[in-house]
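Supplementary Note 3. Input sequence used for the single-chain structure prediction.
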Amino acid sequence: MAVREWLGKISYTLLQGNLDQEVTEVIYDSRKAAENTVFVCMKGAKADSHDFIPSVIAAGCRVLVVEHPVEVPEDVTVIQVENGRSALAHISAARFGYPAEKMVTIGVTGTKGKTTTTHMIKAILEACGKKVGMIGTTGVVIGKETWPTVNTTPESWALQEAFDRMVKAGCQYAVMEVSSQGLKMHRVDGITFDYALFTNLSPDHIGPNEHESFEEYLYWKSQIFTLAKVGILNRDDSHYEEIKRYASCPVYEFSLETPCDFFASNIRCVADGSFVGVEFDIKGNYEADVKVGVPGRFNVYNALGAFAVASFLELPKSQVEQALKTLRVNGRMELVYSSPEFSVIVDYAHNAVSMESLLKTLREYHPKRLVCVFGCGGNRAKDRRGGGGGGRYAMGEMGGKMADLCILTADNSRFEKTEDIIADIKSALIPTGGAYLEIPDRREAITYAITHAQKGDMIAVIGKGHEDYQEENGVRRPFLDRAVIEEVIGICRS
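The predicted structure, written as discrete structure tokens, is reproduced below.
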């Protein structure tokens, strides 16, 4: 393949060489340099890959994409672009034959709710017999195959490779979380989303190597609506108007407060035997009386966004509704067990803000006792607040105030001692007067919560969510909260 065939959708200047140079791969990691590769140079926060040009040439690479002129041998083709990251995205898409254009693409952005909403959309599509690929916090998912990603929105080459694998697997739809960093770092450049959905916005990811300010964070979140054919926005979010003004596509709205395109009313939190979730009515462009098998009023917003997408795709209403009634999202308000006796929920809440939201939500179901099993990650700021969140002291205080019983245990202690982390949590919990137990072994803590459950209890195991490991002293060993809960429940019922 001649390199010119990969440059069709970018602006560039040929500084030297020729565009008929044969190439087989595009790279951005100098360690992967070889003959017939195109090396795309980018300036990063910590490194400038232009500095690695001598080593990639020594490895046999003869095509460079650069952001500024460089001195190299005459037999090296040099192509200058304005932005290396954007060029990488476009070239990667061309290298894989523009796979995103061969599927219906749905992008979901926002501070919270991205993971749950993408899972909802995926569940709806699969219930309607569609083959779906998904990309996000929980990795890349194609059917039963899953592999992890470094970022919520992978680097553009990895993203295009994932799309290519989806197409080859017969996927008709691609659903993905689109992070502000993914937009800022141009990882999704060149993709035209058929549908883009905005959940909500609150301060997050603000600090070194992320966003300089909330205003910048908002700007990059909004940019997905310059890459979309149809926008679907949460009208109730306080930043709705600011997000909307950047949109270059038609915009549709969903709300719990104002009648609009997709409007939810008569919202009820329901805990009835094996079902714990929300019921509500939808009016507007989609009308139904629905049940969603994920607890919490805020999940009505996520479901509304998913219903909106389903309505545009003209999917069978009965199958859409059944998909959300039986929905389970790994590690996100995941109802692992429910009976008239007690219920157990797993959630990724790992800071005070998300913990407060979770516990407030579960209080709406009026449990006899709300039991919270949690720890905190080691080698992290003990009470970080600048980017939103709140660390171990704030979590200790929140647990003491809002749970009837806290069981303090290990999370990912990393290179700290679990006992020291628990001591920090406890120092903020004790002044609240809240009841607590210390059980450092996480398996034992979960076992205790279940075997000592009282009728009407709701047990929340939080902090790790979908994570399938526990990290201690730099070593990761397999550990999945859901699996431990199911094992203990199985033993108790046998």
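The first helix runs from residue 53 to 58. The two ends are 62 Å apart (CA to CA).
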